Amino acid sequence: MGDGRAVHLYTLVNSNGVEARITNFGGVIVSLKVPDREEMMDDVVLGHDALMEYVNDQNYFGCIVGRYANRIAGGRFSIGGVECSLARNSGGHHLHGGVRGFNKVLWDAEATDGGGGAGLSLRYLSRDGEEGYPGNLSVQVSYLLTDRDELRIDYEAETDRETVVNLTNHSYFNLAGAGAGDVLGHVLTMHAETFTPVDAGLIPTGELRSVEGTPLDFRKPAEIGARIDDVCEQLFFGSGYDHNYVLGGGGGTLALAAEVYEPASGRVMRAHTTEPGVQLYTGNHLGNVLGKGGMVYRRRGGLCLEAQHFPDSPNKPGFPSTVLRSGETYRQTTVYAFSVKHR
After folding, report:
1. Which residues contact 85 (CB under 8 A, 6 or more apart)?
2. How many Å is the Cα radius of gyration of the chain?
3. Which one is catalytic: 150, 262, 306, 309?
4. Residue 293 CB neighbours (<10 A)
5. Using CA atoms, how far apart are residues 277 and 246, in angstroms rounded to an integer?
6. Rounded to the nearest 5 degrees, what angle is found at the Cα of 228, between the Cα atoms of 60 and 182?
7. Across residues 159-179, what is the average pLDDT?
8. What is the pLDDT of residues 114-166, one digit of tens each?
9. Looking at the DSSP assignment, which residues form a beta bridge with residue 150?
């Protein structure tokens, strides 16, 4: 780092040869190598080769997002009768923790033996007032690469003062291989009946809207590109898919949220989470980004499934609460499970 602190890159390998490389700068998943149906390994997450590229990255490749994932309208919310003013870093709104969110900090790291896999535990103390948030927030994020070819992410946080917390991971997946083109041919199933529609600033209106009869309906498997350019106000606002889907869970029980299948490679990814929502983002704002190995990531070259509470929840009383109080523990678990489908 510019201040002389060392940054480390950790390699986790399971008994099947699946490999994840994670750095303690931003908790970034730098690479994730999984087999195709011919047992050929390929890296399926977008990213960079060098630390400084992550320091300057504006796409949130592979990182931990916090204190608050997604958007908070106007960078303001009230808690305990006190108005909090946050950094405004996206069109007058607060996005993904602000100017220096959890994706831009150096975490303390410790390799762990999780049993049945290889693990890494990251810790960070976000101090009172950081990016405008109240309370000292102690955060632990644990990665575990299991022998079942799952990448499990467990999040915990505690505060000494009432605050809001919403953590996620922002990996961009391309199951054909990072840099192998767009993801429009990936087949997606989303286990959600409703979504939270947004306005032109991508702030939720507060409504829960049925996916029935809309291009956002992935209850049955469909190619991501089949309807992404349909004439639809929601797709226009997001320049494609950039929407929070409402899941049936959220009560702390791990449940299947989404499945992605890439026909050419046969790779399948299933996302399970304890969260009430998941943001589908199809890389609509990627454009000629220089990635790993000199590859160029173009528009819609990756997809994100960001398990989360809903955007702007602190200003939407009807949404599940993101408030964390002293003496409570925030917990979240997300699992990305990989397999192959044979012809």
Report:
1. 75, 76, 132
2. 19
3. 306
4. 9
5. 5
6. 55
7. 98
8. 677 899 999 999 999 999 999 999 999 999 999 999 999 999 999 999 999 99
9. 337
Residue 42: name the closest of 167, 180, 195 by CA.
Answer: 180
Pick from 336, 340, 341: which is nearest to 145 by CA? Answer: 336
Q: Which amino acid is at 99?
A: V
Amino acid type, 18? V
Rounded-to-integer distance, Cα 145 and Cα 330, Å? 22
Residue 98 one-letter amino acid: G
Annotated active-site residue 191? The verdict is no
In this prediction, residue 18 carries a pLDDT of 98
CB 241 within 8 A of CB 229: no
**The predicted structure's pLDDT at residue 114:** 66
String of DSSP letters for 110-143: EEE--SSEEEEEEEEEE-TTGGG--S-EEEEEEE
Q: Is the pLDDT of residue 8 over 70?
A: yes
Helix (H) or strand (E) holding 26: none
Strand (E) or helix (H) holding 54: helix 51-55
- Among residues 60, 79, 217, 54, the alpha carbon closest in space to that of 135 is found at 79
**Rounded Cα distance, 229 and 240, in Å:** 7
Active site (annotated) includes residue 170:
yes
Burial 309-343 (b: 16+ CB within 10 A, else e): bbbbbbbbeebeebbbeeeeebebbbbbbbbbeee
Q: What is the mean pLDDT of the chain?
A: 96
CATH of domain 9-340: 2.70.98.10
Residue 280 parent element (H or E)? strand 277-281
Residues 225-249, mean pLDDT to the nearest whole number: 96
**What residues pair up with 94 in beta bridges, in sequence order?**
72
Options 93, 96, 170, 309, the catalytic residue: 170
For residues 332 and 275, is the Cβ–Cβ distance under 8 A?
yes
Consecutive H or E run containing 234 = helix 233-238
User: Which tokens go with 342?
Assistant: 């044979």
Q: Parallel, antiparallel, or unpaired: how do β-strands 19-23 and 29-35 relate?
A: antiparallel
